[in-house]
Records
---
Amino acid sequence: MLLATVVGTVVATRKDERLVSSKLLVARPMDPSGKPEGNYLVAVDTVDAGVGETVLIVSGSSARMAAGLKDCPVDAAIVGIVDHVEVGK
């Protein structure tokens, strides 16, 4: 599971028919302190997230288990919107 910030959207007028009606968002993984790390990725949004929000992303076979994505060609899915992150010392 990845912690990430949504930084943009993707519009694809032609895509696999199983992805029709799916919202695609660009996200940037980050560490628990909010520092960006890693490469950007495109994820299917299952929780109605928006640009600027901190989200939880699952990838690989777990992404296909997210609500409504069974048997879809998906490698990353947004499955939660994060309200707060707290890390102990």
---
Amino acid sequence: MYLTVKMDRDNRAKQFMPFDALKGFREALAERERIVVPKRELSEEMKQELDLTFHKLKKLDIVNVQYFENGEYVMVTGVVSKIDESGRFLIIVDTKIAFDDITDMQIVDKV
């Protein structure tokens, strides 16, 4: 006579989950594979174009912004929630971006 015990569904599923013996190893590999690029200097024409866009920009506008962060260029699209001219930063939703790190910006929709 055999005694069988049914395992609940959660415990049964856990036995088939992948085992990560080296915690953080995959993240470390991904970081090593990341290509770090130097920050490029904007031309005077590009700086003037960016300055014109800044002067047109208002809170609640929707923008596309390309900026430099941690050795790579990032693109974000969203609603401008704050423009701080004295602190020289822009907040798009929850992302704080320094004016000096912005390389390109387009206003997608005005309020």
---
Amino acid sequence: MNKIGKYLNSYTETAPLAVFRIFFGLMMFASIVRFWLNGWIEKLYIAPKFFFSYYGFEWVKPFGDFTYLLFIICGISSILVAVGYKYRFAIILFFLSFTYIELMDKTTYLNHYYFISVLSFLMIFLPAACYFSIDAARSPQKVFQKIPRWSIDAIKLLLAIVYFYAGLAKINSDWLLRAMPLKIWLPSKYDLPFLGDLLQQEWVHYVFSWSGMFYDILIPFLLLWKPTRFGAFLLVIVFHVLTRVLFPIGMFPYIMIVSALIFFSPEVHHKILGMIAKIINIKKDRFDNSRILFYKPIKRKVITSVITGFFIIQLLFPWRYLLYPGELFWTEEGFRFSWRVMLMEKAGYAQFKIVDAKTGNRFYVDNSDFLTPFQEKQMAFQPDFIIEYAHFLENHFRKDGHKNIEIYVENYVALNGRKSAPYIDPDVNLLNFANSFEHKTYILPFQDEIKGL
């Protein structure tokens, strides 16, 4: 307890948090602009007739053409975060708007969207605008050159959890012993200059698999240790640039590169802020007042309690899959929100059959009448999607006058290069089930074994 108390009363320079705030805001703004310019707002959130919801968030839906306004709000708030103007309001607004966008359609789920949501939530409780910000420039009494050390260590810890858990997830027989799914993905990059021919070699697939696992597990520790920090940062750059070249994962590699800067000493961040100050023609030394931010005991207790609870959830939540029987990669129960990054290549086929329970009359559904190609692809191998879609079909056909409806699905799924196998029990009426956190008993057993965590 004495060590904890001593740590909570230790302080460090604010500059690293200010640099992180600036780059985070700018990266988020660039992401929103990129999303808009690529036409993905229309394609993903306006054009579809139906949207898959997260359990408990069925009320979160796009606003039609007003969805553009939501993205505008998110973009403006990200700029306000970057410049540190009305920071607390701006970061709360960014967290709410970005998370709402993420929740509008489960089809678009990505680990790095979840990362941005939890990171922006954490930043609500950090004093990121008390140095080198418009808020600080307008109110000198709000300028603090030093802040509690945990304010910066909290971001380091979150980054370490993301990397370390991603590395642990790669310790499985498919990834390490079969080089799957990289053995499927990498050969498709044959047209890349210099790398294309190399990526056809099987030994390269194993090198990428094993090195990816070691990178994720070790990189937080290499960044934390001063003698290896610079080399580790170069490794971060190489790894994420290569990832960006090989896989279409948007801004995430660049976000992780700039985020890694927070592991460097305050002197490095003061130099970065000095360069920014020259570019925008302001005097950086106006913020160098040697003042220390002391929280009142009650406020500090509230903030540290929230952050402690936040990290307890982050540490435990990825392990919830242990509560479910069956193979995780097959059932995907507890798969999301657990930093399991790019571990599966899954493809499915789902043909839905509508049956009149009294007459026995039946007909098949053309999924393209209701779903976009991307939605149909994702639906075909994810059990919660299948159940939600079945209930949507029930409501649709009841409105068309059909009665005594039962819905069955002929469903086959291929996982990481294995042959396609039956997935959902074809004799089960899907309308007897609803989405929940309970184990999905209608999933057929996995006819293989994947060893690992």
